[in-house]
Design a protein that fits this description.
54% helix; five-stranded antiparallel β-sheet; 11 helices; five-stranded mixed β-sheet; alpha+beta; Helix Hairpins; 3 domains; Beta-Lactamase
Length: 463
């Protein structure tokens, strides 16, 4: 049956069941513990008494010539007497023929008596719920006299008072029902009046303050989460619009140039220029798609909290990576009239070689692209704090306005959109740098002054 919202009685029922179970459990535990304590004391008492009787009988047998005859004439009540030879053979038993009994040499109390003069033990009796107590004494003749008696265990003791226990349980259930009815009517109603959807609920009792505070906190978190979802949706739409725009621009250029060539409109001397435009835009389109795929994999890696998408980590020489990038970008730097220098020491970074290469390449590429003829790019690889590596890329270029410095690592953000498009690039380079650094647990710092240059420092943890 599905409980309807606001239905009454459910908490009363829970309180009733909990109270009955708790009281019954306590009663059972107390009864069992009390019985165990009682039994322990009772059995200890019985052992003491039985040991005394065993010593008395042993003293008597030490003075007699015919031990079985003396034992057979004693009135021992419910106590069983057994006479055992040093080799464990039973020579007399008060309840069974001696020749029908097995060897008793392995019985603990007999073994102890033979070794130390006296022995004591207890074992479960053949009668369910009863314990057999044993006391043994070694006689001067080397034989062992053993006395045993059966006494009720905990289970037997409890069953003896079963009617009383059942009556007590009935009274306990009735009292629990009455108490639970009163408690539920008195305490449940104020709880039901708490409105968890208001965000400013007040606890009717001090004990409920954590609960109501948590409800209010969760209400605030839910509202904040909804805002985050909305912001993420807005960011996704903006990213989609930017990607669409960035893809359409080179595609339109390629399509237009190809159409002019196809239809014979372009003059023969202009065809190489149009072909060059198609080639440049195709490369730009390829770079854009590659950057988008890299960012998507980095996003997926961050969401999954795993680096397995880029393969196993390896130890990478950051200085070697910086020199490879500088050599690869040397033709572009010469064409722009920019000098690139790499200095430093070999520092190992634990991570993905391709991502590290892309991180350094994007930083150096930006430093060249937004520089001026005759400018310089300085790449340093030095030890960082705590044994890590520090990559420092500085240029003497146009710099970044202070208002834009917090945004340059956003996707498709351009300080000067017109100039940035003319200079090429996908608008995703520094976004890849940001996420690649996060992938390696690195920290990024940016310092820039307009018309003087920019410095970006990436500090990696110890490998």
């Amino acid at each position: 049956m599905v409980r309807q919202p606001g239905a009454k009685g459910s908490l009363s029922h829970r309180m009733f069941v909990a109270l009955v179970v708790a009281c019954t459990s306590v009663a059972v535990v107390v009864t069992v513990v009390a019985s165990l304590i009682y039994q322990s004391a009772f059995l200890a008492d019985e052992h003491t008494q039985l040991a005394g009787e065993c010593r008395t009988i042993a003293s008597l047998l030490n003075l007699a010539d015919d031990d079985p005859a003396v034992l057979s004439e004693l009135d021992l009540g419910d106590i069983r007497a057994t006479l055992i030879d040093p080799d464990g053979t039973v020579t007399y038993d008060s309840l069974a023929p001696a020749d029908e009994l097995p060897n008793h040499g392995d019985r603990p109390e007999v073994a102890d008596a033979l070794a130390e003069g006296s022995g004591s033990s207890e074992r479960a009796s053949d009668t369910a719920g009863y314990m057999s107590l044993y006391e043994a004494e070694r006689l001067e003749s080397g034989q062992v006299v053993r006395l045993s008696v059966d006494r009720a265990g905990v289970v037997a003791f409890l069953f003896q008072d079963l009617v009383l226990l059942a009556l007590f349980a009935v009274v306990l259930v009735g009292a629990s029902w009455l108490v639970s009815r009163r408690l539920s009517r008195r305490f449940v109603q104020p709880i039901l009046e708490i409105d968890p959807s208001s965000g400013d609920g007040v606890a009717p009792y001090v004990e409920l303050d954590p609960l109501v505070s948590r409800l209010n906190e969760q209400h605030g978190q839910l509202m904040h989460r909804m805002e985050q979802i909305q912001d993420a949706a807005d960011l996704r739409r903006e990213f989609t619009a930017n990607v669409t725009h960035e893809l359409k621009t080179p595609i339109a250029s390629i399509s237009g140039a190809a159409e002019l060539i196809r239809d014979g409109i372009a003059k023969p001397e202009d065809v190489p220029g149009f072909a060059g435009r198609i080639y440049d835009d195709a490369r730009r389109l390829s770079s854009l798609v590659s950057d988008i795929l890299t960012l998507s994999k980095l996003d997926e890696s961050e969401r999954a909290g795993s680096q397995e998408l880029f393969g196993p980590s390896e130890s990478v020489n950051l200085l070697a990576v910086a020199r490879d990038v500088a050599d690869r970008l040397a033709p572009k730097a010469r064409a722009a009239g920019v000098d690139v220098s790499v200095e430093g020491v070999s520092m190992m970074v634990r991570g993905n070689a391709r991502l590290l290469d892309e991180l350094v390449s994007n930083l150096c590429d930006n430093a060249i692209r937004y520089n001026r003829p005759g400018g310089k790019v300085f790449v340093w690889v030095l030890p960082g704090e705590g044994g890590g590596a520090r990559l420092r890329v500085s240029d003497t270029g146009i710099g970044i306005p202070e208002a834009s410095q917090d945004k340059v690592f956003e996707r498709f953000y351009r300080v000067d959109k017109g100039r940035s498009r003319d200079m090429g690039g996908t608008g995703l380079g520094l976004a890849i740098v940001k996420h690649a650094a996060a992938y390696h647990g690195a920290q990024i710092a940016l310092e820039s002054t307009v018309d003087k240059g920019t410095t970006i420092i990436v500090t990696f943890p110890r490998a």
